[in-house]
Design a protein that fits this description.
- With 403 residues, the chain is mostly beta strands.
- The protein has 2 domains: 40-103; 106-401, 3 Solenoid (Pectate Lyase C-like).
- 1% of the residues lie in helices and 55% in strands.
- It has 1 helix and 42 strands.
- The strands form 7 sheets. The protein has a 20-stranded mixed β-sheet that branches. Strands 4, 5, 7, 8, 9 and 11 form a 6-stranded mixed β-sheet that branches.
- The longest helix is centred in the first third of the chain and has 5 residues, at 122-126.
- It is rod-shaped, with a radius of gyration of 34 Å.
- The N and C termini lie far apart (108 Å).
């Protein structure tokens, strides 16, 4: 018996008088058999010409299917055609339903299996600043929650530093934030990716291409990761960027302006330039009240004298606690735009001024310091790093050596 085909459906059987026949055995003479068909409906859910899912239905018009829910790298399908994803769709014909993709809001980024918000886009990162705000007895509100970068993110425009302190976890997941630009005339006192970190953690992150430029009338604690760190910052790489903060009361560092927590396992590339005129200027940390360890800094650091004598260090500007196992192989420049008898350079390859802290296991063999000033000052001053390196005055010119 032949098997016919048709666009109307799927062939079921040959029929006569309600009975089906597979062969014509037992019949003599002419006979008319009618083909019975099963109606088939095909519904295709399509995204960017790719068939995400195909539904094949048989047996009538009044069947329902549940349209699939789909997400991919920070985006999700909100609709198939005009029908909501996850809704029940009444099948009445063959149809192709095209996906409508939308960027996830921060709430949709939460992964219940890991307890992390998975961040794929700039808008999702920016939303961290308003995601989980909880009252703090110290400063109003803090940001809580665990966040994990899932892709490299390029920041458009200029970055507005988060208003509230960060008390959550940011897992950089070995990804890169590109183009972090801060150029503000605001009176805020803390500048960086975060204004401040309070008992929070930031780790496994690269910042590539950055610029912080603040006018002289802004007194601040400034660093690429945070203005003030009272948490843990670790496994960070900085490259291709500059920080310029000329206010005479500022504390500036490549990673953070002021550290009361832990800064560890840091790499600051030779493509980084850090410029300041404030009380403390360091390759990694401006002022250190806690622990700085395993930092390699190859940056160019320039201190431009501006009425006060700040402390300038390849790793830390002004130190109160511990600096261990750090390497400075960059260049420090102390420059003056005027001649003044009060100019007293305070430069160290590891820290510019060590108040009472401990320095151990550090390496300055690749670092250099250059002083371009005239002070008219004839008394020598002593500035310490871990090798007892001393700055001196000589004939109105400043110089340096091992004394």
């Amino acid at each position: 018996m032949p098997i016919p085909t048709s666009t109307e459906g799927v062939f079921l059987a040959w029929e006569k008088d309600g009975q089906t026949y597979e062969t014509l055995g037992g019949f003599i003479g002419d006979i008319t058999l009618n083909a019975s068909w099963k109606t088939v409906f095909i519904i295709k859910c399509v995204s960017n010409s790719y068939i995400v899912k195909t539904f094949t239905l048989t047996g009538g018009y009044t069947q329902y299917i549940t349209l699939p829910e789909l997400d991919y790298q920070g985006y999700y399908v909100s609709k198939w055609g005009v029908y909501a994803a996850g809704s029940d769709y009444l099948v009445i014909q063959d149809i192709i339903l095209n996906a409508l993709w939308e960027e996830k809001d921060i709430a949709r980024c939460y992964n219940t299996n890991t307890s992390f918000y998975e961040i794929w886009t700039f808008n999702q990162f920016k939303a961290i600043g308003t995601t989980k705000l909880f009252p703090s007895s110290v400063e109003g509100y803090v940001i809580l929650g665990n966040y994990r970068l899932m892709a490299d993110i390029t920041f458009p425009g200029t970055w507005e530093t988060f208003t509230y302190s960060f008390s959550g976890v940011l897992d950089g997941n070995n990804k890169t934030i590109k183009r972090l630009i801060i150029n503000s005339t605001s009176s805020s006192v803390c500048w960086g990716l975060f204004a401040s970190i309070r008992d929070g953690e930031v780790y496994d992150l690269t910042i590539d291409v950055f610029d912080i430029t603040l006018p002289e009338n802004i007194s601040s604690a400034t660093g690429i990761i945070a203005g003030i760190n009272d948490g843990i910052i670790s496994n960070i790489t900085l490259k291709n960027g500059a920080i310029t903060c000329r206010n005479y009361e500022s504390s500036v560092g490549g990673i953070c302006g002021s550290n009361g927590g832990t800064v560890s396992n840091i790499t600051i590339d030779s493509t980084v330039y850090i410029c300041g005129s404030g009380t403390s200027l360091g390759g990694a940390v401006g002022t250190n009240y806690s622990y700085v360890e395993n930092v390699t800094c190859s940056a160019e650091i320039e201190y431009i004298w501006n009425t006060i004598n700040g402390s300038v260090g390849g790793i830390v500007g002004y130190n109160h606690e511990n600096i261990e196992e750090c390497i400075f192989n960059g260049d420090i420049y102390w420059t003056c735009e005027i001649r003044d008898k009060n100019i007293l350079p305070s430069i160290g390859m590891i820290c510019g001024w060590n108040e009472k802290g401990t320095l151990s296991g550090n390496d300055i063999s690749g670092g250099t310091a250059h002083i371009d000033c005239e002070s008219y000052y004839f008394l020598g001053i002593m500035i310490w790093d871990q090798n007892g390196r001393v700055m001196k005055k000589e004939n109105g010119q400043t110089g340096w050596g091992n004394y």
